[in-house]
């Protein structure tokens, strides 16, 4: 007879910087962290991430390794009960510079993890991205412009013949799992995530493995070291706090995203971990949803109010390659199947980020504000 199942799995997380987020995760009995060995990242940044995280963890273990190297996986300890694959080169902007790196790192790396999971029959939760959907297809959805943002245009939608309405979109609810993944302009990063996303679905079916694919939109929260290419919400807050220059890249700053705060991501993870045995490559679109949608312009106003500081802002007409003008997540599948809904609103989430910045001002100043 096997050992009685525990409520709290030993969890293996392929990532270190957001480990502090996971520190509070209740169902995790023992967190084994994959502190990466990634030559493409700045050493100083990474080392201090690891050091900081290590200090915060009293029930975790670190193993250094690279998901591109299956031998590193083979050297991990036994007894891992669940894998959360959050590893990736996560920047759309960076992805264009070296496609083979993204495809190898994010695509093949995920397949190495799938092989590891398959050979040991370990369940897996995969951090996919809404960038698996093409920007051209998303940008063609009916929209209207207001003083501060773009919005989906319900009126135009209502007048569209039913056969012309793309599946997986509703102007109130947003983009669901049914939205087409066909077409280009999802970015090289998006391509690499799509490779991994599809591989997770395929392995789940081919090998009867418990796997969940979470297609996240913008994830944010205190503790994230945002910058211009990735983690824009925290970057926007840090720039306001230290009055660093910001730029609206295209669309006059009216481009819109929905923000999911990390506490809600952990709540979701908690629910998925408890039900992991029933999933076989299930895909979920996950984000802050329409209520947590915000444009850059609106984020500027909100952050000026909360911080009582302003950042100098310029704008360019040219948007970034493959950028999306408007996106919010249709969370209804997660609500129906998991009983999950984001709880943290924008005001609360932004306020927590500013509290974190205030508490860590000296360290953040040394990271973000040049001394010359
Ligand atoms: N932050 C978001 O808004 C967002 C949105 C959608 C999806 N995601 C996904 O969530 C995950 C986490 O993203 P993040 O924003 O926290 O980025 P992040 O850069 O903070 O985390 C990615 C981690 O993966 C590690 N990593 C990269 N290559 C590796 C390798 N070869 N071997 C081992 N580790 C490696 C990095 O060092 C880093 O620790 C990623 O998979 C990303 O694609 C993030």
Task: List key phrases describing it.
372 residues, alpha/beta, Rossmann fold, three-stranded mixed β-sheet, 16 strands, globular, disordered N terminus, binds nicotinamide-adenine-dinucleotide
Describe the structure.
By secondary structure, the chain is of the alpha/beta class. The longest helix has 22 residues. The chain starts with 9 loop residues before the first strand and ends with a helix. The structure holds nicotinamide-adenine-dinucleotide. The site of nicotinamide-adenine-dinucleotide (NAD) has 27 residues, from strand 2, helix 5, strand 5 and strand 11.
What strand line-up does the widest sheet have? 3-2-1-4-5-10-14
The poorly predicted ranges are 1-9, 15-30, 35-58
DSSP strand count = 16
- Looking at the structure, the CATH topology of the domain at 1-133 and 181-216 is Rossmann fold
Overall mean pLDDT: 86
Residues in helices, as a percent range: 25-40%
Question: How large is the share of residues in beta strands?
Answer: 15-25%
Short recap of the structure:
With about 375 residues, the protein is α/β, with parallel strands linked by helices.
SSE layout:
Elements: E1 10-13, H1 19-22, E2 30-36, H2 43-56, E3 60-65, H3 70-74, E4 82-85, H4 92-95, H5 99-120, E5 124-129, H6 135-139, E6 143-145, E7 150-152, H7 154-159, E8 169-170, E9 174-175, H8 188-206, E10 211-216, E11 218-220, H9 232-242, E12 246-249, E13 256-261, H10 262-274, E14 282-286, E15 293-295, H11 296-307, E16 313-316, H12 332-338, H13 346-359, H14 361-368
Parallel strand pairs: 1-2, 1-4, 2-3, 4-5, 5-10, 10-14, 11-13, 12-16
Antiparallel strand pairs: 6-7, 8-9, 13-15
Helix pairs in contact: 5-8, 9-11, 9-13, 11-13
The structure holds nicotinamide-adenine-dinucleotide.
The site of nicotinamide-adenine-dinucleotide has 27 residues, from strand 2, helix 5, strand 5 and strand 11.
């Amino acid at each position: 007879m096997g050992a009685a199942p525990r409520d709290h799995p030993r969890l293996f997380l392929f990532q270190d910087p957001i480990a502090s987020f996971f520190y509070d995760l209740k169902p995790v009995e023992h967190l084994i962290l994959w502190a990466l060995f990634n030559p493409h990242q700045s050493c100083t940044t990474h080392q201090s991430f690891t050091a900081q995280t290590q200090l915060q963890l009293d029930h975790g273990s670190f193993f250094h390794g690279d998901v591109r190297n299956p031998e590193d996986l083979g050297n991990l300890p036994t007894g891992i009960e669940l894998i959360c694959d959050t590893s990736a080169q996560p920047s759309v902007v960076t992805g264009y510079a070296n496609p083979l790196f993204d495809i190898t790192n994010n695509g093949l790396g995920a397949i190495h993890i799938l092989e590891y999971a398959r050979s040991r029959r370990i369940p897996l939760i995969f951090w996919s991205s809404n960038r698996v959907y093409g920007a051209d297809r998303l940008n063609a959805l009916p929209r209207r412009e207001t003083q501060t943002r773009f919005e989906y245009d319900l009126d135009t939608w209502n007048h569209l013949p039913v056969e012309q309405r793309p599946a997986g979109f509703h102007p109130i609810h947003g983009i669901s799992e049914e939205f087409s993944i066909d077409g280009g302009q999802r970015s090289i990063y998006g391509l690499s995530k799509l490779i991994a996303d599809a591989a997770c679905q395929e392995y789940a079916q081919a090998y009867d493995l418990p796997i969940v694919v979470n297609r996240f939109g913008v994830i944010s929260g205190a503790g994230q070291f945002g910058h211009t290419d990735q983690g824009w919400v925290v970057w926007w807050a840090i720039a306001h706090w230290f009055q660093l220059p910001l730029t609206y890249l295209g669309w006059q700053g009216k481009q819109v995203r929905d923000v999911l705060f990390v506490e809600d991501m952990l709540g979701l993870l908690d629910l998925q971990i408890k039900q992991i045995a029933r999933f076989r490559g299930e895909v979920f679109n996950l984000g802050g949803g329409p209520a947590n949608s915000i444009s850059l312009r609106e984020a500027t106003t909100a952050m000026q109010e909360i911080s009582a500081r302003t950042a100098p802002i310029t704008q360019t007409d040219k948007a970034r390659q493959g950028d999306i003008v408007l996106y919010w997540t249709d969370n209804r599948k997660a609500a129906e199947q998991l009983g999950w809904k984001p709880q943290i609103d924008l005001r609360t989430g932004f306020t927590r980020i500013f509290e974190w910045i205030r508490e860590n001002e000296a360290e953040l100043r040394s990271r973000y504000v040049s001394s010359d």
